[in-house]
Amino acid sequence: MLSTVLLRQLTDQVQELHTTAESQLQPLPLPVLNFKPTPGSWSALECLEHLNRYSRFYNAELTTALHAQPQTATPHEVGFSWLGRKSYDTVRPDNGKKHRTITHMNPAGSQLGTEALHEFLQHQKCLLEMLAAAQGTNLNRKAVRIEFFKLLKLRVGEALQFVVAHEQRHLQQALRAAHQATTAPILVV
């Protein structure tokens, strides 16, 4: 895929993530945002906190990668390494297979307020700025360390695609949890 096309698609997807979280989650009361559909599942806010933890790492990595090279690249075909393709396939929203997250990225049991939602929205704004800054960057350059094994690196383009797909996947999960909270039967004692 051409770099300009990929960056436009990712920008559109991040704008949609921001708009969806703002319009569908932000108006909800805290008990709905903290509702867990099952004892072992995450609430909407836990889904967002999970994404925040990843964003804290990957936003810094991407910023460093984008500022480490001159903005001279012309539109080019974006390739994927085996690791990049595998990482993306694992988190893409239409992959229904559940995966365990690493312990320090698991927000289960966290006491969360709406600040998790506000932080998520801020990360989306930051990601939009990075996507704009990536226009003149060689997206095929391996420059983004992987969070759980920092010796391995993703290409800039595949890291951007991984981050956005991961956010889409867990925002969908957050929306499902919030929806189940509003449709759950009320127990009257």
UniProtKB/TrEMBL annotation:
One Pfam family hit: DinB_2
Protein name in the entry: DinB family protein
Provenance organism: Hymenobacter nitidus
Domain DinB-like positions: 22-174
Gene3D superfamilies: dinb family like domain
